[in-house]
Specification:
Two copies of one chain form a homodimer.
Chain A: E1 5-15, H1 23-27, E2 33-38, H2 42-45, H3 48-58, E3 62-66, H4 75-87, E4 92-97, H5 99-111, H6 118-124, E5 136-140, E6 152-157, E7 162-167, E8 177-180, H7 190-208, H8 216-237, H9 242-255, H10 269-281, H11 285-300, H12 305-316, H13 325-343, H14 359-365, H15 378-388
Parallel strand pairs in A: 1-8, 2-3, 2-4, 4-5, 5-8
Antiparallel strand pairs in A: 6-7
Chain lengths: 389, 389
């Protein structure tokens, strides 16, 4: 059954090489005081920073900067940004970077005018904003999170060792526009590219492996997975292949902009397991997901066998003739594993800096989701982390 | 190659049984003077009219009505509506009906404040609106056209025997919101249901059968087609199956809201052929498409063989082993034909009121599109219409 839902995604996307030219027209819609948000400074090396600054100047904007947003943006960094944005009386926030920068900017957008502590309000109580939300836009330079067209924002509290994502229901938290130029992603190292690819794939899995209903969303999810597997193999061999990289970029956007979750249950337990690893090791998000995925899926497979059989047949072209459902499902997961190894993904959390001594802390840092085929007990989580070592 | 494009689709969708309850909150955002637009009066029999009027009253709206919008809305009817909306100083247009009512309301939205003739401006010159566009919303009661989430509006000029669609680039022509309650579609006659299903399927085909690029959009299209074929077979046997009908409704929306056309060429020649039949016979839109489709696709198949092979394998699960590409492609079209017959679609234009004597007029009324695998000559069109008799 396609359950009741509402859908609204007003982000305007400018896609393709040279799309930055549309930034000027978009910025003209907002006030003079812009806060430019970016990460570790790679945009200064590849020329994107200069191009954006030039456009901001042409638009006569008064610009403040928040630099150094880290891969797992922290609450401390959010507090720091709030001060800058408040002092600058920000009319608009412009994120230039990947998912972390974009997530951070959304967290900032709901916090600038918030008179409560944002961690308490948005990440512990999961409240919606009750204050004015500062409008934001995004120039995307890395692919994977889908942050460019959704209202999600993950923040890490280092003190509490918690990495929590809040997907806001309020559409005003979504970027007003996002510039998606695939050529910006061509200079990424292979490690970052494949981590992003697995992040995309897992976003789709989290929404696909849930529910037993007959649902259009699952057919769209299969289409996205097939496209991603196809293009990732091309990009893995030829990172400069614009066609493959542009398809990966577009797939990422639709993998996590709420469409394929419409009317159905979703899981997100792999993200909870991975985020616990991320909170403790600061490892790259996509790799943390890759490292825990197969132990998790093999663990829940018996509880959602029908969907795993469908996954094997429709996504991995497994021929089911003369095989039991278990055999078909296992063959699908084996094909997925082979593809992950082909891409060079990190297949265990040891390589990411975790060890047996961290198991208790990892379990403690993992939120339990209830939408998947099996609600994990603490014991099961511990077992999955152990198998991921 | 995923070509450059922009994408923005801000329509808010309320999906599921009982979604009309959200109408009140949406109407509160607009002014007092509402023009209610509907068709032949079926909404008065099934209670939807009363429910909508009740909500309009609760909102304190001043309501004028445009009733009797016909299946192929005419330019005369548009002129009539313009007078009503102007006299009422319309702040908002509310379409309650199927694609024709919604299309008509969009044509009205761009015409109320237009000081030129809308046929000349929007349908012969394909200009964008330069005047204020009256905001509109939609309560959908029939499924197929996707009009509830796009900026397209087809109008028929009976005098000139032309049925022309304009997909506006201006997002303000899209409905601000659409209420999609699948239970509203359960009372439709079988003929209308299957005509709508084929309209959806053909929308996807028109976007799929074009270009030779490797494109995520085509993977999404395949997912939508697989979902539609699956659900249509259930609905065909059990029209009251909410699960199947809701999936069909959702597929219809995504089949024509610009997503699966992003970054690729599209065809639309079947729609041109079908609209010519519609302009001359006033036959149901989806049936006109069904009646000309197979002669058209069999005609262009050699020019886009690779895509037709992919269609056969990925949409119809044709096993290609030991077969030539032509055999695989033909087997795919044969499976499509069998499915169309299973649904009870009209497979020739004779049954729709066309005859051999109309061939010249049909060819004259057909626009030539240039995005498909073969740009049709007048001779080829004539041949396709003849084979469709």
């Amino acid at each position: 059954m396609l359950g009741n839902f509402s859908y609204c995604n007003p982000t305007k996307l400018y896609f393709g090489e040279g799309s930055l030219k549309y930034l000027k027209g978009e910025l003209a819609k907002y006030g003079k005081n812009v806060v430019l948000v970016y990460g570790g400074g790679s945009i200064k090396k590849n020329g994107i920073y200069d191009a954006v600054i030039e456009i901001l100047k042409e638009c006569g904007k008064d610009v403040a900067e928040i630099a150094g947003v880290m891969p797992n943006p922290t609450l401390e960094k959010l507090y720091e940004g709030m001060e800058i944005a408040r002092a600058h009386k920000a009319d608009f926030l412009l994120a230039v970077g990947g998912g972390s920068v974009c997530d951070y900017t959304k967290a900032l957008a709901v916090s600038v005018h918030c008179d409560e502590d944002p961690w308490e309000k948005y990440y512990l109580r999961f409240d919606e904003p009750t204050c004015e939300v500062v409008p934001l836009g995004c120039v995307l330079t890395m692919v994977g999170t889908g942050s460019e067209m959704n209202a999600g924002a993950v923040i890490t509290n280092r003190e509490q060792k918690l990495k929590i994502g809040h997907v806001f229901a309020d559409e005003s938290v979504m970027p007003r526009f996002s510039v998606l130029d695939p050529t910006y992603t061509l200079t990424l190292p292979h490690y970052q590219m494949v981590a992003g690819i697995y992040d995309i794939f897992n976003h789709i899995c989290e929404q696909y492996f849930s529910g037993t209903d007959d649902n259009t969303s699952d057919y769209l999810a299969e289409g996205l997975m097939r496209s991603l597997i196809h293009s990732s193999r091309i990009a893995n061999k030829d990172m400069q292949n614009y066609e493959a990289r542009s398809n990966i970029m577009w797939t990422a956007t639709w993998a996590l902009n709420t469409l394929i979750a419409c009317g159905k249950d979703t899981d997100w337990e792999v993200h909870m397991l991975g985020q616990a690893v991320g909170a403790l090791t600061d490892a790259t998000h996509g790799m943390t997901l890759a490292a825990v995925s197969l132990p998790y899926y093999r663990h829940i497979m018996p509880y959602g066998l029908e969907k795993f059989v469908r996954f094997a047949k429709n996504v991995w072209d497994v021929n089911g003739e003369g095989k039991t459902d278990e055999e078909i499902a296992n063959e699908g997961l084996a094909k997925m594993e082979a593809w992950m190894k082909e891409l060079g993904l990190v297949m265990n959390i040891t390589e990411l800096g975790a060890n047996e001594g961290m198991l208790d802390e990892l379990v403690k840092a993992t939120l339990v989701m209830e939408g998947g085929y099996k609600v994990l007990s603490k014991e099961e989580m511990r077992e999955i982390f152990r198998e991921s070592l």
